[in-house]
Backbone:
């Protein structure tokens, strides 16, 4: 057998595959994959464009998890800008509702749940001083942004 199958290379060097950092990188990858899955099933061009932009931001979040550059503050600001625009388009419900009313909303809902899991793990890494607060805040806003996209999808369905 060649090499140590229990280790992997990150931007910060070689680490064990069972570390919190590798878990975080995996969660970012998983969230990005589900966002991509949702994107290919959504027909609305604006939502597709937003999801595509988010996927590129996910790469930058993954880079910070892997020990690379800090997550850019401009990405956090951009997500707030997108959210502000979407909040003008969709009314948020005043009670809990079932969001998975169609295939597109269901895929977005899974993506949102994975982003929320990623955020919980990011908080752990932040508390260990292994991740910036910016990426944690960004993940928090990401789940809300995905929620708004879900509402747009189910609104389109009900109209």
Residues:
């Amino acid at each position: 057998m060649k090499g140590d199958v229990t280790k992997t290379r990150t931007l910060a060097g070689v680490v064990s595959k069972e570390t919190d950092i590798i878990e975080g990188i995996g969660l970012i990858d998983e969230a990005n994959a589900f966002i991509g899955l949702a994107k290919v099933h959504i027909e609305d061009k604006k939502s597709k464009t937003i999801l595509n932009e988010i996927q590129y931001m996910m790469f930058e979040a993954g880079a910070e998890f892997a020990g690379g550059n800090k997550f850019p503050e401009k990405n956090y600001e951009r997500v707030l800008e997108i959210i502000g625009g979407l909040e003008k388009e969709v009314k948020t419900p005043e009670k809990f509702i079932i969001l998975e009313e169609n295939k597109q909303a269901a895929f977005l809902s899974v993506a949102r749940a994975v982003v929320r899991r990623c955020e919980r793990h990011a908080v752990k890494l932040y508390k260990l001083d292994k991740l910036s607060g910016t990426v944690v805040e960004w993940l928090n806003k990401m789940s809300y942004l995905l929620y708004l996209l879900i509402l747009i999808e189910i609104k389109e369905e009900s109209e």
